[in-house]
Specification:
By secondary structure, the protein is α/β, with parallel strands linked by helices. The protein has one domain. Helices cover 30% and strands 16% of the residues. The protein has a five-stranded mixed β-sheet with strand order 3-2-1-4-5, with helices on one face. Strand 2 and strand 3 form a beta hairpin. The termini are far apart.
Length: 159
């Protein structure tokens, strides 16, 4: 018995553009960074507290949609001073141990993606009065601009 593995499958992520002209450092407000860490025991920590995977999507959505600057007219967040200023500045920082189980890493990635999907879907309904499936390419770009997927991934190396 044999099988083939499709080489064109994988996780779709937009990589950041190369920095052509130094300095390549971006200033950001610390509150705009949502820190997720998966340790060697596959425990998920958000802002240094262990959480259940079932809570990750809602925590991520609340962080992104916070509207801390009160300038986002489509956001429905609580405007906490400890969460993001607006969706366009919210950065999800995902760090994992070198011994993290691949399955746990993918589960976390999936929950983050679901959070963005929900936010984008709600935006399409609320602002464009359409379901996600009804959006034109141009409208989809508007939705993605309202909730840009900004993810920074880091693996902790072991010697």
């Amino acid at each position: 018995m044999t099988t083939t593995i499709s080489a064109d499958k994988g996780m779709l992520r937009k990589l950041p553009a190369e920095c052509d002209a130094p300095p390549c450092i971006v200033d950001f407000n610390e509150r705009n960074v949502f820190r997720i860490f998966i340790n060697r025991n596959d425990e998920i920590m958000v802002e240094d507290e262990i959480i259940n995977i079932a809570d990750l999507k809602d925590l991520t959505k609340a962080f992104i949609d916070n509207n801390g600057e009160n300038v986002c007219d489509y956001c429905s967040g609580e405007q906490l001073i400890t969460s993001s200023d607006k969706p366009s500045e919210a950065v999800i920082f995902l760090k994992h141990d070198a011994l993290t189980n691949y399955g746990a890493f993918i589960l976390v990635q999936d929950e983050i993606s679901k959070a963005y999907y929900d936010l984008r879907s709600n935006y399409a309904k609320k602002v464009l009065n359409k379901s996600s499936e009804e959006l034109t390419k141009k409208e989809l770009q508007v939705v993605k601009k309202a909730y840009p997927f900004i993810l920074s991934e880091v693996k902790v190396e072991r010697n």
